[in-house]
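Readers outside the structure-tokenisation community will struggle with the description of the input data as it stands. Showing the layout once, in full, would remove most of the difficulty. For illustration, here is how one protein appears when written out as sequence plus structure tokens:
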Amino acid sequence: MSQPITVSISDFKQNPSKVVEEAQGRPVAVLRHNRPVFYAVSPELMTQMSELYDERHLSTLLESRLKSVDHAVKVNHDDL
């Protein structure tokens, strides 16, 4: 993923559509006093980030459950 471009909050407020268009899909870090206050991202990038977050969450859950496999109860499929 490419580095975000930066813009002051004043410039962003003047014409947000232009800033997003000029970013060409890259994230935009909106700054106040040279510190990020928020990021503007494309819907596609937001979807990718959400999917990565979900995968990481599921991975963490799976790892924790695998640690407790010693407490698992063996079940015969035919008994179900």
